[in-house]
Automatic annotation (TrEMBL):
UniProt-listed Pfam families: VTT_dom
TM segment ranges: 6-29, 61-81, 146-169, 175-197
Protein name in UniProt: DedA family protein
Protein's cellular compartments: Cell membrane
Length: 222
């Protein structure tokens, strides 16, 4: 048995406290999204397993709680990062190895290159899922753009992970070990493709721009 199933068995939910279970899912994922390394995805899988094996939880509400936690947590993390700046990551680096200088630098590069796409696809990657909100705030990404990518990524992630775990049941934890790698490869391929398209379009625009008359006159005089 994998970790998500063990958690599910350990927290079998009586019908009277189903609401508490939804709150726990949203809270764990929300705190993780704020920048604290908690097992958010494992909690979502465990809740989805419970929903598939018992009638106390509804998968629709599990997904709703997870998506809400992701969106709200990321937004709080955004404003924390915006206010605290680089100091926040320096302090976290002293307490959590997840925030090592090397990982922060790599996350920054992703944000500078791919912007809001990092927020969207980062929801499917463990470390970026923790970094996304605070990092976007620190880099002062335009909040409406961040919120749109954050909401879309949170809903897509919660729905995908929740539904697959619900359908697959006991084998969800084994499959997600492979999906995590697959998701990372997919993100890299899409990001590289977008970057190449951006570069090609930029070069074409530069080539299509007319030469200023003054510059053309100077060239002719020479």
């Amino acid at each position: 048995m994998g970790e998500p199933l063990l958690i599910a068995q350990a927290i079998a939910i009586p019908s009277g406290v189903a609401v508490l279970a939804y709150l726990v899912v949203g809270l764990v994922i929300g705190v993780e999204s704020m920048g604290v390394p908690l097992p958010g995805e494992t909690t979502l899988i465990a809740a989805a397993l419970l929903a598939s094996q018992q009638h106390h939880l509804k998968i629709e509400f599990v997904i709703l709680a997870a998506a809400a936690g992701a969106i709200i947590g990321d937004s709080i993390g955004y404003f924390i990062g915006r206010k605290a700046g680089r100091r926040l990551f320096e302090r976290l680096g002293k307490r959590f190895h997840h925030f090592s200088e090397d990982r922060i630098v790599r996350a920054e590069k992703y944000f500078h290159k791919y912007g809001v796409w990092t927020v969207f696809f980062g929801r499917f990657v463990a470390l970026l899922r923790i970094f996304a909100g605070p990092m976007a705030g620190m880099l002062r990404m335009h909040y409406p753009r961040f919120l749109a990518a954050n909401a879309a990524g949170g809903i897509a992630w919660a729905t995908t992970i929740g539904v697959v775990a619900y359908k697959i049941g006991d084998n969800a934890d084994q499959i997600f070990g492979r999906v995590s790698v697959g998701a990372l490869i997919a993100v890299a391929v899409v990001a590289v493709a977008l970057y190449v398209v951006h570069k090609v379009r930029k070069r074409r625009r530069e080539e299509a721009e007319p030469v200023p008359e003054a510059a053309a006159t100077e060239s002719a005089d020479v």
